[in-house]
Design brief:
Elements (H helix, E strand, L loop, with lengths): L1 E8 L2 H12 L3 H8 L2 H6 L2 E8 L6 E3 H13 L4 E5 L5 E9 L2 E7 L4 E3 L10 H15 L3 H11 L6 H12 L2 H14 L4 H4 L4 H8 L8 H28 L6 H8 L6 H8 L6 H13 L8 H13 L8 H19 L7 H20 L5 H9 L4 H11 L13 H18 L7 H8 L4 H4 L24 H11 L10 H7 L6 H13 L10 H18 L2 H17 L5 H12 L5 H17 L4 H17 L4 H15 L2
Antiparallel strand pairs: 1-2, 2-3, 4-5, 5-6, 6-7
Length: 646
């Protein structure tokens, strides 16, 4: 069922002005204004709501349709005639089936059921019974159930109230899951179904974000109450919903603490998670901690772990490739539409990963070819939006890079989490086969763990500071190398490798900056373009995670020297370096000024028209993602546009 709002105003000039203004707004804002009665009254507007029954069914005026349903409910078994917008006649019939009332819209060839319209009934008992049925399916929060039950106990619903209630019931993860499965079965897939455009939906999916600024507070204040309520209200179905949130081990622990969680429910959930790696890793972490009281979980956990180990992340039809692709699509679309506003990056990623997991779960129940889904993602245009948004987010959370969403890294991260929970619960793992799988040095799990990948930050750890300090021997080696008379591209390797894994001493990035100045930005044995770019990128990451403004400034000079000495420098690579190094600045204005000025410098020195045409859309998209860059990138954008059109 689809709704369309239109507005009309008098006099005619005012109508045109208001209509033009509304059409300039984002769809979400425009819809909110059209549905705001006070706004309509202020501007002398009237609203006409059209409802299309099904994806391509007949369209009706809302008021006439709702009144016809009300009349049919009052006159069970009678046939109420109504005409659609094409003047075709239809019948609405209410039939008593056992204790339930069924409503259908019919013509000579077609009959469509619409049970939710029983909520329009004048009879309170019919309204409440239909709500209980709908709520049991949609699984809304306890607060929402209580609020609407109270309202339904009163007078019959007005048209807007009915719309509000049915919309609220639709904006739940359970209904989203059913919509996804239906779309995959019919092949009628649209982006709004894959990625809902209501922030309320994501609050219900992963918990509300109020004033929480860090992951720990979010887990304590939002996740724990949410998952406890889900398991308490909906038992197995609630656990299956809660497991979608397990993009971090801290959330698996929060679910494990839910008072109503039992070993029996955990066992039952295992069979419902095919295709959903995030939920599976959560269940594995929870299950391993409970092996002392629930040893029957061992074969279930062993099967899931072996499945992850055996899967090749390079397989385009595999689960890791699918999860990676879906995260990119969901996060890219959320960034493009700005559905979640200016929320912290960790919550944005949590919402994107949970939705991607829900889509993966729905896909596993369909017959769609996963490789074709991955192919579609690569041509959707959302990949570069995800990439740019992640680089923008480094200013707030500097330790999670875009490539960490890759299938290979996702596998390394999940296997690393399994290894960690296994070591922490060594005494609870009893069976020989599971102990060998999880704990043996030559076991299947340990053979898959290749340093440093399992230890890199996860998607909710972008703002975290590693607890381990850089070992003194490594510090001494780095200091000795950077103090040398000459620098090579690999002189910075030790520092770069440590940047994301250790809490670096504050003076390390300063030493690197001083070394670059001392050798006048000359790097020996740097003919290998790949090696040079790797060095520059690595130093940008060091500047980013250590918040070293000094190193970022010197890196800009180094990049300029390399750019002017080498005609083969890829401007897209330097563009990326600039955005990473810019995260050395925490404040928005300082970040925007540094990034914008560097990007403008790149744009003004380009001599290849094709490269300019490739860089231009990136700059434009970047400015749309972060408006603070607009004035700092204006000259560069203009230069790129002019040069690429010559």
């Amino acid at each position: 069922m689809m709704r369309k709002n239109t507005v009309m105003a008098r006099p005619k000039v005012q109508a045109l002005m208001v209509d033009g203004a509304l059409n300039m707004l984002p769809p979400v804002v425009r819809r909110q204004l059209i549905e705001d009665g006070a706004f309509l009254e202020k501007w002398g507007l009237t609203r006409t709501v059209l409802i299309t029954m099904g994806r391509s069914g007949p369209t009706f005026d809302r008021q006439g349709l709702f009144d016809a349903f009300r009349e049919a409910i009052r006159n069970v078994s009678s046939s109420i005639e109504i005409k659609d917008r094409q003047n075709k006649s239809w019948r609405i019939v209410a039939r008593q089936q056992d204790e339930a009332l069924e409503l259908s819209l019919e013509d000579e060839a077609l009959a469509m059921s619409f049970a939710d319209y029983c909520l329009l009934a004048a009879d309170k008992a019919i309204r409440v019974a239909q709500f209980e049925k709908a709520a049991n399916f949609a699984k809304p929060s306890r607060d929402m159930q209580q609020a609407w039950r109270s309202r339904l106990e009163g007078k019959p619903l007005e048209d807007d109230e009915f719309d509000d209630l049915t919309r609220e019931l639709q904006l739940t993860p359970t209904n989203a899951f059913e919509n996804l499965k239906r779309s995959f079965r019919t092949g009628e897939i649209d982006m709004a179904t894959l990625v809902p455009r209501e922030s309320r939906y994501y609050e219900r999916l992963v918990g509300r974000l109020e004033d929480q600024k860090d992951v720990g507070t979010y887990v304590a204040r939002s996740v724990k109450p949410l998952v406890s309520e889900l398991v308490e209200l909906w038992s197995l179905d609630g656990l299956v919903l809660a497991l979608l949130l397990c993009s971090s081990e801290s959330i698996s622990a929060a679910i494990n603490d839910a008072p109503s969680l039992s070993g029996e429910i955990i066992e039952q959930a295992a069979g419902l998670l095919e295709g959903d790696l995030i939920s599976q890793i959560g269940l594995i972490e929870i299950g391993i901690t409970r092996l002392d009281s629930n040893p029957s979980l061992e074969p279930i956990l062993e099967r899931m772990v072996i499945g992850m180990i055996d899967e090749n992340p390079k397989d385009e039809g595999g689960r890791f490739a699918l999860l990676s692709a879906l995260i990119v699509v969901v996060a890219g679309e959320l960034a493009r539409t700005k559905t979640l506003g200016s929320t912290p990056p960790f919550w944005f990623r949590q919402a994107a990963i949970a939705q991607a997991s829900l889509v993966a779960r729905a896909l596993s129940e369909s017959n769609m070819d996963i490789a074709s889904v991955n192919s579609w993602v690569s041509t959707s245009g959302l990949g570069h939006i995800f990439f740019l948004q992640t680089l923008v987010d480094l200013r707030v959370e500097p330790r999670w890079l875009p490539e960490f969403v890759g299938a290979k890294q996702l596998k390394a991260e999940l296997l690393g989490r399994i290894a960690k929970v296994a070591v922490n619960n060594d005494s609870k793992i009893k069976s020989t086969s599971l102990r060998r799988l999880l704990l043996a040095e030559d076991g299947a799990l340990r053979r898959e763990l290749h340093w440093p990948f399992p230890f890199l930050p996860g998607p909710l750890e972008g703002a975290s500071v590693p607890q381990n300090m850089l070992p003194l021997p490594v510090i001494d080696q780095v200091n000795t190398t950077l103090a040398g008379e000459k620098l090579e591209a690999n002189s910075f390797t030790g520092l770069v490798n440590a940047a994301l894994l250790y809490d670096l001493p504050s003076d390390q990035s300063g030493l690197a900056a001083a070394a670059l100045r001392r050798v006048k930005y000359s790097v020996e044995k740097s003919e290998d373009e790949t090696l040079v770019f790797g060095m520059v990128m690595g130093l940008a990451i060091v500047a980013c995670v250590t918040r070293s403004v000094e190193l970022a400034d010197e890196l800009r000079v180094l990049s300029r020297v390399i750019r002017r000495r080498r005609s083969s420098v890829d401007p897209n690579d330097e563009f990326r370096v600039a955005l990473i190094a810019a995260a050395s600045r925490r404040d928005l204005d300082g970040w925007a000024s540094f990034a914008g000025d560097w990007i403008t410098e790149i744009a003004l020195e380009l001599t290849d028209r094709l490269e300019a045409s490739k860089l231009l859309p990136k700059v434009r998209r970047l400015v749309r993602l972060e408006a603070a860059l607009a004035r700092h990138c204006a000259i560069g954008e203009t230069a790129l546009a002019g040069f690429s059109q010559l």
